[in-house]
Write a sequence for this structure.
């Protein structure tokens, strides 16, 4: 009998390979976005586990105070309504961080929200113009789901924009092993510290 570990590795490997393949046509995760959220009531150690339920992208807060203390913020994957996303679900995602000044914004900690995952990072992640690709054994089917967290100290008003992973142009890979499809995100949030951030909600 095949071990659970072997099964998980097989899932991770298949999805990782799919992320390297291009998609010929829009798939069920088309029109997805990466958006950001800061909740000042959450402690740093709580990470993704203690985020209050969020069902509306418009209710996310893309702005934090720039006071030199640790600020916990999150990256969410956001998709249009279920009626337009038949077969929606992803097991792999990839995004990047835009150019920012690491003397003003210091990344003190970061991590993935999934329990079982393989993460491949590039360009000194999470530094400026870097990226990450994450393959999970969890099929995410919600239309708004937290996928990553950061703790950042801001010593001056500045911002960090999300963007495509600099080494690939796919953002989401479907869960279905029989037909892996990769889609590209169409919008990226900006986390503001001491200045207004923004989210391109679906």
């Amino acid at each position: 009998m095949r071990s659970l570990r072997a099964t998980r590795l097989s899932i991770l490997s298949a999805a990782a390979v799919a992320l390297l393949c291009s998609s010929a046509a829009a798939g069920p995760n088309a029109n997805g976005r990466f958006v950001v959220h800061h909740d000042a009531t959450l402690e740093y150690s709580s990470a993704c586990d203690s985020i209050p339920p969020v069902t509306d992208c418009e209710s996310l807060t893309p702005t934090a105070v720039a006071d030199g203390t640790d600020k916990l913020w999150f990256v969410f994957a956001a998709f249009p309504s279920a009626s337009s996303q038949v077969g929606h679900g992803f097991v792999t995602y990839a995004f990047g961080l835009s150019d920012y000044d690491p003397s003003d914004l210091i990344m003190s900690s970061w991590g993935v929200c999934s329990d079982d995952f393989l993460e491949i990072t590039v360009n000194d992640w999470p530094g400026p113009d870097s990226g990450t690709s994450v393959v999970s054994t969890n099929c995410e089917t919600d239309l708004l789901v937290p996928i990553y967290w950061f703790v950042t100290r801001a010593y001056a008003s500045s911002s960090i924009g999300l963007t495509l992973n600099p080494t690939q142009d796919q953002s989401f890979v479907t869960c279905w092993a029989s037909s892996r499809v990769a889609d590209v995100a169409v919008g990226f949030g900006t986390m503001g510290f001491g200045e207004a951030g923004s989210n391109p909600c679906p």
Q: What stands out?
A: The CA atoms of residues 71 and 152 lie 5 Å apart. The longest strand covers residues 144-154. The domain at 4-193 is CATH 2.60.40.680 (Immunoglobulin-like).
